[in-house]
C-alpha cells in the first residue's frame, strides 16, 4: 500500500473498531449476567450436594473477542473425567433445567448430548455439560476440547483482540462467518487462530489474497497428520490442542474463494461496505421484479413448514432435498441455473424454502427420443415396433444412423412436475414428514410473497 492508502486503511480500521467493540455498558452487563448464571449453577450444585463439578465461561465472551451487539454466552458445566456419559447427561440437564427458573425463555437441544439454550436479559446462553479431562488427547466428547481452546487462545491473543474483532466483522460482512452447516464458513475459533498465526487483521488479508485451495496452516513445527492431509479439504488449519483435527474442516470451497476474492478487493480499495452486509435492494419489490424479468428465466420455490429441529439437522436435509430435486428436474429436461436452500431461524418463523432458477419452467410438448443405430437389427426393430405407430409419438425418422421419434413429454411445466413427483425425491427424514403434511409451490414473481429480509437478501444476491 502507498502512504495515502495506508493512512485511509488505518483510519477505517479505527472507525470500524469503534462500532464493533463492546461498549463499557455491554461489558458490565455481560459480566453481571455471567456472574448471575454461574452463581445460580453453583448454588444448584451445592444444594444437590454434587461433588467436583465446576462451571466455566468459554467462547468469545471469555476470550474478549466478542462483537458489540452479539450477546451470546457459552457456559460449560464441567464434570469429573470418570463420570459416566449417562450421569453427565442426566445430572447436566437437571442442573441446566434449574437455571431455566431465571430465564426469560429456554429450549432443550441435542448435539452430541443434550444441552439447554436460554434467553436471559437479552443474552443467548448455551448451558453445556462436558467432561473435565486432564489432557486434550483424552476427550470423551467433542465439546471437551472447548476449555482447552479457551486456554490456548487466552494465552496467545494478548494485544490482538481488536484484530480478531475486525476479521470476524469482515467475514460477517461478506457472508463467510460461521461454521454451522447453514453457512459452511469460518468459525470464531478459526478466526482467532488465523490472527494469532499471521499476527494482525491486515496480515491475514494480505496472505489470504494469495491462498489457493489446499493451503495447510499450523501453529508449531509438528508434522501434519497424514489423515488430515488425505481429507483434502479446501483449507487445513491444524488444531493446536488436537493435532488430528482440522479447525477449518467446515469451510467449503466457495466460502474460501469468497474470502480470497473479498480480501483482494478490500486491499485494492479499502471500504466500510466490506464489514456490513449490503441492505436495500432486497426490500425493493420493483427492483427484484425487474431483475427477474430481465433474466427471462423461470423461478420456482418449494415452501413448507420447517421441521422442529436445530439448523445442523435441518440444513443437511435441505441440501439433500435441493440436490435430489435438481436431479429430477434435469431428468425431465428442466435445466437448473441456480438453486439455494434457506430456513427461518428457530423461534423467528416456521418456514423452510428451496429455490430454483430454471433456464425455462415451460417446455415444448414434444422432445426427441433417440433409439439404437439401424444396423443393430434386433434392438432397432424393437424400437421401431414400439414407436413407429405409437399415438404419442410423431415423425419417426433416421438421424445420424439412429432411429429417432418425437414423443410427447410427460411434463411440460416444472410446477406440475413438482406437484406430481416431489414426494418421490430423496428428502431426508424430517423434511419428508413435513412435505407429506403440506407444501406450496411459488412460481416467478409469486416468490416475492416471501417477505423475510434474509430470504430476500439471498434472492437479491442470486439475481
From TrEMBL:
CDD domains per record: NT_2-5OAS_ClassI-CCAase
Residue positions binding Mg(2+): 72, 74, 126
MF GO annotations: ATP binding; CCA tRNA nucleotidyltransferase activity; CCACCA tRNA nucleotidyltransferase activity; magnesium ion binding; tRNA binding
EC number: 2.7.7.72
GO biological process: RNA repair; tRNA 3'-terminal CCA addition
Positions bound to CTP: 60, 63, 149, 168, 177
UniProt domain CCA-adding enzyme C-terminal: residue ranges: 295-443
Domain (tRNA nucleotidyltransferase substrate binding) ranges: 162-276
InterPro entries per record: CAA_C, CCA-adding_arc, CCA_tRNA_nucleotrans_2, NT_2-5OAS_ClassI-CCAase, NT_sf, NuclTrfase_I-like_C, Polymerase_NTP_transf_dom, tRNA_NucTransf2
Family listed: Belongs to the tRNA nucleotidyltransferase/poly(A) polymerase family. Archaeal CCA-adding enzyme subfamily.
Function: Catalyzes the addition and repair of the essential 3'-terminal CCA sequence in tRNAs without using a nucleic acid template. Adds these three nucleotides in the order of C, C, and A to the tRNA nucleotide-73, using CTP and ATP as substrates and producing inorganic pyrophosphate. tRNA 3'-terminal CCA addition is required both for tRNA processing and repair. Also involved in tRNA surveillance by mediating tandem CCA addition to generate a CCACCA at the 3' terminus of unstable tRNAs. While stable tRNAs receive only 3'-terminal CCA, unstable tRNAs are marked with CCACCA and rapidly degraded.
Note: A single active site specifically recognizes both ATP and CTP and is responsible for their addition.
Protein name as catalogued: CCA-adding enzyme
Taxon lineage: Archaea, Methanobacteriati, Methanobacteriota, Stenosarchaea group, Methanomicrobia
Amino acid at each position: 500500500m502507498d502512504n495515502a492508502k495506508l493512512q485511509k486503511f488505518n483510519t477505517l480500521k479505527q472507525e470500524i473498531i469503534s462500532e464493533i467493540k463492546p461498549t463499557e455498558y455491554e461489558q458490565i452487563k455481560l459480566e453481571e449476567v455471567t456472574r448471575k448464571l454461574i452463581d445460580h449453577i453453583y448454588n444448584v450444585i451445592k444444594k444437590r450436594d454434587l461433588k467436583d463439578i465446576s462451571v466455566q465461561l468459554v467462547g468469545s465472551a471469555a476470550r474478549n473477542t466478542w462483537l458489540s451487539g452479539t450477546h451470546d454466552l457459552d457456559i460449560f458445566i464441567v464434570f469429573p473425567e470418570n463420570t459416566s456419559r449417562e450421569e453427565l447427561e442426566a445430572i447436566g440437564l437437571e442442573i441446566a433445567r434449574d437455571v431455566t427458573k431465571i430465564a426469560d425463555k429456554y429450549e432443550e437441544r441435542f448435539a452430541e448430548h443434550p444441552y439447554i439454550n436460554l434467553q436471559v436479559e437479552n443474552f443467548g446462553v448455551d448451558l453445556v455439560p462436558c467432561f473435565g479431562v486432564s489432557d486434550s488427547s483424552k476427550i470423551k466428547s467433542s465439546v471437551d476440547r472447548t476449555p482447552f481452546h479457551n486456554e490456548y487462545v487466552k494465552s496467545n491473543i494478548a494485544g490482538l483482540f481488536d484484530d480478531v474483532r475486525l476479521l470476524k466483522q469482515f467475514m460477517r460482512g461478506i457472508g463467510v462467518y460461521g461454521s454451522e452447516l447453514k453457512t459452511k464458513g469460518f468459525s470464531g475459533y478459526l478466526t482467532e487462530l488465523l490472527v494469532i498465526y499471521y499476527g494482525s487483521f491486515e496480515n491475514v488479508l494480505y496472505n489470504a489474497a494469495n491462498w489457493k485451495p489446499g493451503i495447510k496452516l499450523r501453529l508449531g513445527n509438528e508434522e501434519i497428520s497424514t489423515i488430515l492431509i488425505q481429507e483434502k479439504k479446501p483449507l487445513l488449519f491444524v488444531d493446536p490442542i488436537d493435532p488430528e483435527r482440522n479447525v477449518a474442516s467446515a469451510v467449503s470451497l466457495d466460502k474460501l474463494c469468497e474470502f480470497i476474492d473479498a480480501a483482494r478487493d478490500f486491499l485494492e480499495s479499502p471500504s466500510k461496505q466490506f464489514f456490513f452486509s449490503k441492505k436495500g435492494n432486497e426490500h425493493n419489490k420493483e427492483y427484484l421484479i425487474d431483475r427477474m424479468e430481465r433474466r427471462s428465466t423461470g423461478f420456482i420455490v418449494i415452501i413448507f413448514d420447517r421441521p422442529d429441529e436445530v439448523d445442523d439437522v435441518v440444513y443437511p436435509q435441505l441440501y439433500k432435498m435441493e440436490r435430489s430435486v435438481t436431479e429430477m428436474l434435469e431428468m425431465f429436461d428442466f435445466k437448473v441455473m441456480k438453486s439455494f436452500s434457506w430456513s427461518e431461524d428457530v423461534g423467528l418463523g416456521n418456514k423452510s424454502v428451496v429455490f430454483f432458477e430454471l433456464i425455462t419452467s415451460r417446455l415444448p410438448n414434444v422432445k426427441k427420443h433417440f433409439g439404437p443405430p439401424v444396423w443393430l437389427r434386433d434392438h432397432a426393430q424393437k424400437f421401431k415396433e414400439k414407436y413407429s405407430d405409437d399415438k404419442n409419438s410423431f415423425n419417426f425418422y433416421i438421424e445420424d444412423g439412429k432411429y429417432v421419434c418425437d414423443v410427447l413429454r410427460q411434463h411440460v411445466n416444472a410446477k406440475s412436475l413438482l406437484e406430481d413427483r416431489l414426494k418421490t425425491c430423496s428428502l431426508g427424514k424430517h423434511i419428508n414428514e413435513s412435505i407429506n403434511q403440506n407444501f406450496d409451490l411459488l412460481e416467478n414473481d409469486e416468490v416475492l410473497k416471501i417477505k423475510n429480509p434474509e430470504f430476500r437478501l439471498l434472492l437479491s444476491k442470486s439475481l
